[in-house]
Predict the 3D structure of the following.
Amino acid sequence: MLLQSVFFLYYFCLVFCLVWLTPKSLRWLPLLAASFFFVAYGHPGHLLFLVLPTLVAYAAARRLAALPPEARKARKRWLWAALILILGSLVAVKYVNFFMGTAAGVVSLFGSGWTWKPLKMILPIGISFYTFRLIGYLIDVYFKRIPAETHAGRFALFASFFPQVSAGPIERAGRFLPLLRHPETFSAERIFSGASQAAWGFFKKMVIADRLAVFVDPVFADPSGQGLNLVFAAWLYAFQIYCDFSGYTDIAIGLARMLGYESAPNFNRPYLSVGIADFWSRWHISLSTWLRDYLFLPVSYTVMRPLKQDRLFGVKVESWAYITSALLTMTLCGLWHGPTWAFVFWGALHGAFMIAGQLGRKRRRRWARKAGLTSRPALLRALRVILTFNLISFAWIFFRAPTLSKAFAYLHFLQLKINPSGWSFLVVGVLLILVLLGGERLAASDKSSGWWSRRPLPLRGAALALFVCLIILFAVDTGNEFIYIQF
């Protein structure tokens, strides 16, 4: 179901009315029904891939809560059995062809005639996102960070909440389940705030991201002879995917707020980052913090625990732990995004950038002192932001390209030669980016000063209606799906 379709507009209006007409204690019922319908719409079989892992997580968590702390082996068995079953459904539909195709390619190097015929798979909507929700919930219950949820309906709603199920944010159970237990009361101000944020998300997607794609897509489709257009396309794709994904997040957060639930933030001006690690603290925050808490830190502790000495081969043990954790975490992050070697390479590249940034801190500080930049912190920060953005844009090439070979072909055709055919699109792209930056600057200033939020509600309502008309007028194509829906 396309969020920008007229059908979804009618659908959400119906759900909105049902939710606010339902008593608080029963509000989970229309929301759960709406969420299940949203997942099953178009492909009813998708619902099975949501319901079964949800039941496994619910039952396993209840069992973990019932077992005494001293029953460590039994608790571990329940945890691992549940994790394997939940991850198994994700692997079955998303990665079987990738793993088996890779295995067939390796075996063929030794002269075997075995080949793998790819299975026809339809990826269930949101499976990568609700799988991580359920895994995080189980681990938190296992370590007794949160109690096991006893209400099966609210737990199913936590896993399937329809504004977020397609592409996040990846909510934590410890934060979101209490909100489901105690819904907010009706508030015109909250509803207007949610509608405004959702409208801004639609603008970023339908006006900015989709219009940037008009230039970016042809360049990536045929990079030969494009010259500097390849550089321009990489830069513009960075903003395209940001507007596309953060636009979805704004819509999800806005719609959830209109229904009475506050979502976790997912973006914080990521292209103002001063390093790759800083970028991942600002980009897709719900995923990056999930990876930090449930993968990066456990791997770091596992690496450091058996090493008794301070250094290994002249390198600090803490550095070895960081290298291992960063490379493994980011490589798996790339694989999570999609079953291709291009995604794996993209993730590993970010891991390598993070390792280089961590290990080269002292050297960078020496260079900054020698260049006299330490006395000019604003210039130093600007240079770091520019460098980080270009590293990120370079990595986005591997994310955007359909295969790893096509990503390297894209780099192969790169030339310092101006192609006049792309200048008009570049100018339009820069203007769109300026509109984006201006809009986000206004939103940030209003959040701190509250100037616009203090204006009369009818005035703000009229402005919002005018803004929606502008979206409809300048939208490129209402049929373009969000990029992260495919993950």
